[in-house]
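Review this:
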Amino acid sequence: MPQHVRLVVEGPSDEALVQALLLRAGLPLDNCEVVSAGGRDRAAWVASLVQRDEQAAILVDTDGEDAEIVREQILRRVPSLRGRVFVATPNIEAWILDDEALARGVSRTRAELSRLTTNPRGEDDLDLLTLASLLDVDRSAARNPTLREFLLGMSALLGAPIERFHADSAGRSLSRDVIAGLLREVSPSEVVWKPSAGGTPLTAKAMLEQVQAGTELGRQYASDLLRVSRDLLQRKAKKQQ
């Protein structure tokens, strides 16, 4: 019989959104209880109180902090959670709002999406829940490493492996090699990426290091570049029909 899993999250809106994401990924919730704790610090404390016949896991927002630092802060308080501390970068809402096509489908403007991102737990929680229940979770997981890690981790805890996410790992490695090869053909000092919210632009040399190291930024850059290339090829093919 599968072991009961108690997943601790920060707040009530997180509880609803996470349940919707797990269901969207096809994971069974019969043996999973999602519990809101009232903040990151209390989430670690609540997870530490789980009964011995249950498994605890925890999911918190990084809120712009380094994901590994947030993870280690929790593990210092509850070492027994190792391997079951999941983080959302920068928050769970960003996992959902990343799907802009779906957002347009429910008549949200870019201005409203920006407002939801900065104030995600206000009166628009119900709209976010609608987005979560309709999310293309495969595409979002491919774009966001922390969402993919969360879904794979929960699938293992619940005894319901999501093979399609594992199968995609070879494709991601191939994408990294392809992008690295393209970056080597660009002048090392040429700027290839500018952050949308300010910050320091990255040259081809700096981005190549990110891609080769498999960092979150490097994976996102590779994913975005391949997606843009695919869209351009599709538009060109349609024009030739």
